[in-house]
């Protein structure tokens, strides 16, 4: 869960199914050309770190999640996990603000 000490390092976490990697990279490039800071796998997964932990860290440190939806998304378990994690984190933040 995000704590007060967690810095929102990224503007956008880009979530996509593996077969859509080329499109996701193009989207990332467009966002970054507009000045947005993006987190995208595998680029932002640090070497030697656990992949799933890195993804969760990216989700936690991102202001928003961009889901690249395609016919490939239906069977992409990671995409569902990323979206659910982001939704739970932000719902928790909203309740704390009440």
Care to describe what's here?
This protein has 98 residues and is α/β, with parallel strands linked by helices. The longest helix has 21 residues, at 77-97. It has three helices and three strands, in the order βαβαβα. It starts with 9 loop residues before the first strand and ends with a helix. The radius of gyration is 13 Å and the shape is globular. The protein has a three-stranded parallel β-sheet with strand order 2-1-3, sandwiched between helices. The mean pLDDT is 88.
Distance between the termini: 17 Å
The oligomeric state of the chains shown is single chain
Contiguous uncertain segments of 5+ residues = none
The amount of helix comes to 40-55%
- Radius of gyration (CA) equals 13 Å
Envelope shape: globular
User: Describe the biggest sheet?
Assistant: 3 strands, parallel
Q: How many individual β-strands?
A: 3
Summarize the helix and strand pattern as letters.
EHEHEH
Beta fraction of the residues?
15-25%
In short:
The protein has 98 residues and is of the alpha/beta class.
Helices and strands in order:
Layout: E1 10-15, H1 21-33, E2 38-40, H2 51-60, E3 62-67, H3 77-97
Parallel strand pairs: 1-2, 1-3
Main features:
98 residues; 3-stranded parallel beta sheet
């Amino acid at each position: 869960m995000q704590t007060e000490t967690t810095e929102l390092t990224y503007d956008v976490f880009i979530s996509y199914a593996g077969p859509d990697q080329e499109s996701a990279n193009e989207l990332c490039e467009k966002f970054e050309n507009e000045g947005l800071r993006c987190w995208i796998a595998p680029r932002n997964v640090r070497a030697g770190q656990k992949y799933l932990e890195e993804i969760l860290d990216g989700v936690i440190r991102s202001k928003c999640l961009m889901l690249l939806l395609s016919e490939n998304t239906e069977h992409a378990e990671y995409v569902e996990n990323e979206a659910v994690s982001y939704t739970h984190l932000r719902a928790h933040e909203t309740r704390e603000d009440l």
